[in-house]
Amino acid sequence: MEVILLERIAKLGQMGETVKVRDGFARNFLLPQGKALRANAANKARFEAERATLEARNLERKSEAQKVADVLGGKSFIVVRSAGETGQLYGSVAARDVADILAAEGFNVGRNQVDLNNPIKAIGLHEVVLHLHSEVSITINLNVARSADEAERQAKGETLTSADAIYGIDEDALRPEDFFDPNADRDEEEEA
């Protein structure tokens, strides 16, 4: 299906371009969201008549997103979650959780603007990309820890999931021979 884009869409095209997309993508996303119109003579004339209004609205949205990006860009947020001794979270931190954390700090960001390919499932420092506008993207840092004290230690660069941090063991001194005997299987075979 051919559509006329009403705004810039990443990996698809600029405002006003006529592009060919799959029917389902157009019917289920572009048309209902108001991001495109079907490409026919009537809609082309309608787009040309409303072009100045659409460009002004797009510029306004971009400037608002840029203001938020200037304040939010590079900030770090602490997320406290329950986790096991190895640093594996009992749950996960998903895009919805990131949006809720930002809302608690006073930033209005929707979960569809959070670019998190996979949920965060381990404690540590994680970078998350936010797409505030089709032309404005920023990165924030999430410090996922078991407590605020742990988050502070993590922010200073301390590793909390290594064997040394958890058990007081020097990982460099560990050798496989310390845990199993490589000759144990041979002894059993010789006895048989």
Automatic annotation (TrEMBL):
SUPFAM superfamilies with a match to the protein in the record: L9 N-domain-like (SSF55658), Ribosomal protein L9 C-domain (SSF55653)
A UniProt-annotated Pfam family: Ribosomal_L9_C
InterPro entries linked: Ribosomal_bL9 (IPR000244), Ribosomal_bL9/RNase_H1_N (IPR009027), Ribosomal_bL9_bac/chp (IPR020594), Ribosomal_bL9_C (IPR020069), Ribosomal_bL9_C_sf (IPR036791), Ribosomal_bL9_N (IPR020070), Ribosomal_bL9_N_sf (IPR036935)
Sequence segments annotated as region (Disordered): 153-192
UniProt superkingdom: Bacteria
Record-linked PANTHER family: 50S RIBOSOMAL PROTEIN L9
Role summary: Binds to the 23S rRNA.
Similarity section: Belongs to the bacterial ribosomal protein bL9 family.
Protein's UniProt name: Large ribosomal subunit protein bL9
Species in which this protein is naturally found: Ferirhizobium litorale
